[in-house]
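Let us work through a complete example step by step.
Step 1: write down the sequence.
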Amino acid sequence: MTENRPNGASQNGKAKSNIISQIVRIIRKAGLDYEDWRYVAKRVRQECELRPAKRKQKLPKVLNADDFRRFYQIVDRADNVEHSLMLRLLFYTGVRVSELCSMEVADLDLENCKIRINDGKGSKDRYVLFGKSFATALRTHIAAHSENRWLFQSRRNTKFSTRRIQQIVKEYAEETGVKATPHTFRHQAITWLTRHSGMADAELQLITGHSRRETLAVYQHIALDGELEERYQKAMRDVEL
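Step 2: predict the structure and record it as tokens.
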């Protein structure tokens, strides 16, 4: 027995296939190269007034101050130095989990407290920073694993997988009684810097590796519980209604 597919969806798919075939024939006949096609596609979108649907902008979820500190207290209680360094570096640098896994010892500049991120999101290289007080801990870790290629290396002498880092974070998060993923600490870092560093958006964009400056705007909303909220409460205190 054949499965009944929605007739509308089937017809829509066929219509798209026919259009694609027609466009392919036109491009080949006209001898258009990649840049020519980009120009044509752009002009077609303009003539037809085609616009992408606006994506919903959701605020990232971050831990409150108490849960955040309790998470690291539980990490320290486990007495696993590598986990302690790894999960702190997630926050200090605000890197993505894949970027953390791919860090090599050679990428670290301990004197200047920065790390080179190679081939990050969008195939872009950049530098991230970490605090001077953390350099000593990293230097000790590297000295204790002088043969390692990767900053954090598994027992099989390979880099950690993103899945394994996700599992580690989940285990500590469950013990803390919160929900968190490695990306949570990227959100934590950017929120903290937005609230406390005084950096301009362009500077934050450079450090965090965001492709668009507008993306950082969501962190300003999360940072409302800082000095901005205090100034708001002070201003509203004298309102008489």
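Step 3: interpret the result. The CA atoms of residues 201 and 217 lie 9 Å apart.
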